[in-house]
Design goal:
single chain, alpha/beta, five-stranded parallel β-sheet, 44% helix
């Protein structure tokens, strides 16, 4: 169903969205906001139905901000509940087994609070602020997919708008009348598990993604970037380096021109070429990753402002002093640097999720699409666009110079999983992940099992600036929302009433490993993943004792996922992450094996001609690994046939048990390798 609001109402909605400054008042967005306002005027409950990224939450938030302009009343209060993160007793309440006392859940607490506020407003003196609060609506948003496990008990509360016709029936057989000011909003991407009786009680507002969905996102991001740059320049004590407001505005113009040139070209090429991703993703997610990565790179280079970035802390990205300019002129250097940074961010935002076989096609297309006449966008160099990074002068240089700055090899005597050998692939993936995490942007590493995703994520967390604490949570078949929450609470402390933060640090970066192992319920629910999505969105969780909301601040997440056997995470959660594809074992396996075994043999008293066998043994191991993988294919009947980097490292560790007195000749070392 769809309603059409009058033209004056749409004008007021556009004005409210424009004054908020965070969203773009496009025609379709304003129409959706007006339709939601018209539906809430006649119905108690409205379902916002649409795919992830369609703007369901943004529509509700925009209407909340537009209510004062439309009716002259205060904005509605907004309570967000993620039902799948709560048990039935935590959501609706329960009866104590021994005392028989009724214990309210989250939803009864919200309704009682709204009923008390309404009673106080009715008893207040007319004209006072307390009396005016009677007109304030109270919205309860259920941000989760609809299933009978939690939605069926809401049937009596969704009917009508009168005080006596809508009530919530509790397990204690108590009925709570729903005040007239309360509205129920639901967000869902499908109705596969919703029963017809529930659907008939709600109004459905269908939202869809437009073909040019990325343009409002880019426009609002550019607006915020210009505003932040202008505010930063206004607070400077001097402008002796030539960074006047007009000059900074010119840099923002260059940034906008580059972004609006690159994004349409890449999206058109991706649609025509059919590049395959590690997991299905959307154009909006990739453009959002571009904005996040570019924002982090610009903050570290301090191109648009000389102030410290507001992320976890400063990170040494550029060779030499951050933001230093060359002798050939500030303006020229800044133009080329901005163009190169936009190109670098676009390569990893649009090419990072691609499979290894399709990255070469993407690089070839980029070389053809952007030539020397496009300036820094061309990423001029002798290698592929994924094989280099942008230095402080805007030049495209290979990753080899970055490796000593980002990684430190561990001792071969370290425990399992603690040895990390840097390669070109790990260097660039670690750099991009660390850059995003410094701005609290979630990162998702996707690849086959055993190819080093966990080790790569740990290396990225270890490279974070000082002041950022790290934690690791590994999902398994028994991980649920309470267990996940308990592990996080151990690293948090109370900051103020209803607010939690990292203990002893400004920010906590959490590695959430093996997301695909989270168990799924009868209706596809995964409570632990729903809780992770609520934390990323800033909703936090509900205290199961006080039934009050606790918001968690200062947290960022890095996830690892192996899509084996079709196991994936829900699209609502996946859209929050910047996805990076970790390719399977290739030439990096030989480098890792040679570094581990060759380093051990060189320190173990072996002769030089025996030490020289390390590359040959590594090549034989890689060849054997490839043949075994081709002969023993993973299937539903042989799920244990998983061949990755973990098996190669196991052979390398076994070779490090060789003793010079027993395996000091080439023949004996070869036989020892054959045995292992």
């Amino acid at each position: 169903a769809s309603a059409t609001g009058p033209a004056p109402a749409k004008t007021m909605v556009s004005l409210a969205i424009f004054e908020a400054g965070e969203l773009e008042p496009t025609a379709s967005f304003v129409r959706n906001v007006s339709d939601l306002d018209a539906l809430l005027a006649v119905r108690r409950s409205v379902l916002l139905l649409g795919p992830p990224g369609a703007g369901k939450t943004a529509v509700a938030r925009a209407l909340q901000a537009a209510v004062p302009h439309l009716r002259g009343s205060s904005s509605p209060s907004f309570a967000v509940v993620c039902p799948r993160t709560l048990s039935h007793e935590e959501l609706y309440g329960a009866v104590h087994a021994s005392s028989g006392e009724a214990v309210d859940g989250v939803l009864p607490r919200l309704l009682r609070r709204a009923f008390d506020d309404t009673s106080i407003a009715r008893a207040a003196v007319p004209g006072t602020s307390a009396a005016r609060s009677l007109e304030q609506q109270r919205w309860i948003l259920f941000d989760d997919e609809v299933d009978p496990e939690w939605a069926d008990l809401l049937h009596p509360a969704l009917d009508g708008l009168g005080d006596g016709h809508s009530a919530l029936c509790l397990p204690s057989e108590e009925r709570i009348n729903v005040p007239r000011s309360v509205r129920f909003l639901f967000e869902a991407s499908h109705l596969r598990h919703a029963c017809p009786a529930w659907v008939s009680r709600v109004s459905v507002l269908r939202l869809s993604r437009a073909a040019e969905e990325w343009q409002p996102l880019v426009a609002s991001w550019l607006k915020r970037t210009r505003l932040a740059s202008a505010q930063g320049e206004a607070t400077k004590a001097d402008a002796s380096d030539g960074s006047t407001p007009a000059f900074m505005s010119e840099r923002c113009d260059i940034l906008e021109r580059c972004v609006r040139t690159v994004v349409p070209a890449v999206l058109s090429a991706a649609a025509a070429a059919g590049w395959q991703h590690a997991l299905p993703t959307t154009d909006l997610t990739k453009v959002e990753t571009l904005c996040r990565l570019l924002e982090a790179l610009l903050a570290e280079a301090r191109i648009l402002s000389r102030h410290e970035p507001s992320g976890v802390g400063r990170a040494t990205t550029w060779a030499g002093k951050v933001g230093e300019e060359g002798e050939e002129g500030k303006g020229d250097v800044r133009v080329s640097q901005i163009e190169a940074l936009v190109a670098f961010a676009a390569v990893w935002a649009f090419g990072g999720p691609l499979l290894a076989a399709h990255r070469g096609r993407f690089s070839l297309w980029w070389r053809k699409a952007f030539g020397p006449s496009d300036g820094g966008l061309a990423l001029i160099g002798d290698c592929e666009v994924f094989d280099g990074f942008v230095d402080r002068t805007g030049k495209f240089v290979p990753w080899g110079g970055m490796m000593p700055q980002l990684f430190v090899s561990c001792s071969i005597n370290a425990g399992p999983g603690e040895v990390f050998v840097p390669t070109i692939e790990t260097t660039r993936l670690c750099f991009v992940s660390r850059t995003l995490l410094t701005r609290a942007s979630p990162v998702l590493l996707v690849g086959p099992p055993g190819n080093g995703k966990s080790a790569l994520a740990r290396a990225a967390l270890a490279a974070l600036p000082e002041g950022a604490a790290t934690a690791r949570v590994s999902f398994h078949a028994c991980t649920d929302a309470p267990a996940f929450r308990a592990k996080l609470e151990a690293r948090l402390e109370a900051r103020s009433s209803g607010h939690l933060g990292p203990r002893g640090s400004a920010r906590l970066v959490c590695l959430v490993d093996d997301l695909h192992l989270c168990p799924a319920g009868r209706h596809g629910e995964r409570p632990a993943l729903s809780l992770l999505r609520a934390l990323i969105d800033g909703y936090g969780w509900w205290d199961h004792r006080r039934r009050s909301q606790q918001r968690v601040h200062g947290m960022a997440f890095c996830g690892a996922l192996s899509p084996v056997g079709g196991k994936r995470i829900c699209s609502k959660l996946q859209r929050r992450f910047a996805m990076l594809s970790v390719p399977p074992v290739d030439g990096s396996g030989l480098a890792i094996f040679s570094a581990l075994v060759g380093g051990y043999l060189g320190r173990g008293g072996f002769e030089a001609h025996v030490v020289a066998m390390a590359p040959m043994i590594g090549a034989a191991t890689i060849a054997l690994h490839a043949e075994v993988g081709a002969a023993f294919v993973t299937s539903t009947t042989t799920p244990h046939y998983v061949w990755g980097l973990r098996e190669i490292c196991a052979v390398a560790r076994s070779m490090c048990d060789a003793v010079a007195e027993l395996h000091g000749t080439r023949q004996r070392l070869a036989r020892f390798w054959l045995h292992e």
